[in-house]
Amino acid sequence: MKKLFALVLATCMMLSLIACGSAGGSEATPTTEAALPFRVGYHKVNITPDSPVGLAGYGNTDERKHTEVLDYLYLTCVAISDEQDNTVLLFSADVCGASDVMVASLRNKISEKTGVPTTNMMFNVSHTHSAPSAQSITAIFNDAAMEAAEKSLEDRKPATMYFGKAETDGINFVRHYYMN
Strand pairing partners for 89? Predict the structure, then answer.
């Protein structure tokens, strides 16, 4: 359990460093835990609805429907496993929100299908008001999360964690629809 906690902590630190991205070269230094082998997989699914749906936030969603798509919406999943196959799934979705009940139900379904414990899953939403809520595209959201979980687990490859400096572009990219 301690190794799993260390793995989750290291992953959060890694994602924080990526999100903060700093200028500089790409020199990398191995972590003190470099001897701990783990596998990482990733998958991304387009969750942009085909037909106009109400955009979440700012009141009545019936008045705020998209008319065309400027930027697609995605749900992504990173799967990280240690040498004992303890696995965490980290999800991120370009939606305004997702209810606790919906996410709990989805965690249970993903756990039944993949064997990853529900406590080893983290869902994050971008909270963009230029997208629907997860509830308004439930079928798309659930199917995408299941696909992303399964494909990211299939995609796992040996990895070593390094800390370094790099420039990142578009990490806080705002996705939005055109509206009337």
Answer: 79, 121
Q: Is the backbone of residue 117 left (phi > 0), alpha (psi -120 to 50) or beta? A: beta
Q: Please, what is the angle between helix 138-154 and helix 100-114, to 10°?
A: 40
CB 43 within 8 A of CB 89: no
With a CB cutoff of 8 Å and minimum separation 6, the contacts of 13 are none
Q: How far is 114 from 109, CA to CA, in rounded Å?
A: 9
**For 134-162, what is each residue's pLDDT tens digit?**
888 899 999 999 999 999 999 999 987 77
**The CA-based dihedral angle spanning residues 115, 7, 150, 117, taken in that order and rounded to the nearest 10 degrees:** 20
Two structure tokens written together for 111 = 């756990």
Three-state SS at 83: coil
Amino acid at 47: I
Q: pLDDT tens-digit profile of 89-128? A: 999 999 888 889 999 999 999 999 999 999 999 999 988 7
Beta bridge partners of 122: 90
Cα(42)–Cα(40) distance, integer angstroms: 7
β-strand pairing of 74-82 with 87-93: antiparallel
CA torsion sign for 35, 12, 42, 155 is: positive
